[in-house]
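Archive transcription. Copying these from loose printouts into the bound notebook so they stop getting lost. Printout 1 of 2:
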Amino acid sequence: MTVVEMQAELAAMLDPQDIPRSWTPRELEAYETRRRTLQSYIRIIQNATAKLAEHEPEIAALTLWRDHMVAWRQTLGDRLLASPQRPGTRAAEDIVLGLKLSIQAIDRNLDWDGVVMPTHFPLHELMRQAGYETGYPGPSWRGCLPAAERRLAELQKRRDDAQHQLAQVTAAIATTPTPV
């Protein structure tokens, strides 16, 4: 039974004041139980569906962000390892500093107070290549890797809870007899 069918059945039910006095207490109780059951099922399905609609796009965006962060962390680490241990020029030092700060931004965010921003910040370059607006923090920044993973786990749990509620209601609907 779909939500639309349940809503139609609920709408077709008699108002409590219009129930015939000839009904037995058992008939009346069964009728009102059906009304409450339908209302409950509809509410649970609508709430769970709304949660899924709300969380799925954010889960997809955070999953993509996390995957980018993991790849970017690897790329930046490889570039840092390939850099000279003792840069000979100010420009080379700036590149190494930019790599280190980019990795720190991914690993744990940065406290920008007192940090001199290097002219070359490789994380911005990687963000631009992936289609994000640059800036740290900025409009595209979804948090460091651990924060993104925590938020993603939280959202996935909420999504799983909503899916579980839908599964429970679906099973209950399938086993609940429809009155004649």
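Printout 2 of 2:
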Amino acid sequence: MKRVILTSGPRGAGKSTYANSFLERNPWVKGISRDELLIELFGKTSLSPYTGGHEYAYEIFFERIEKILNNSKANLDLVVDCWNGGPGERKGMLKKFRDFGAERVICWKFMTSLEICLDWFMKKEDSKGYSEFGFRDDYRFYHKTSENIEEDGFDKVYLINPLQLDLFN
């Protein structure tokens, strides 16, 4: 069975840290990270929305996901670590995953408090240029647009509280 696990949560929620820890503990699971691809392509994760860099990166991102799924003979677990703000974006991703051969698509929805997300995000090097006000707006946007994430079409949604996992101490 080909299974895709999509991380979902606001900036600074611990998605990448959790995904990387999971991948280290489960070496047979494959992983792909949007942030790692942005760094590979542009040297940073924060890009101007006017350059077209994000669109180009998503094109490459989905080409790589398709290749991973198509090159797998049978069983495959693939963790896709990627920001996905609204239901339309998530539904589009789900359709692509299924078109690429994923038989199950699971969501890890990160339930991290605003204060923790803000603290973790502002410590990142790529947080320069972000205001606390803008960050709070993004956080509220994510949670408003993911209230009914179970209706997006995932086979299963798991709520993740990364603070319970002893990864962040």
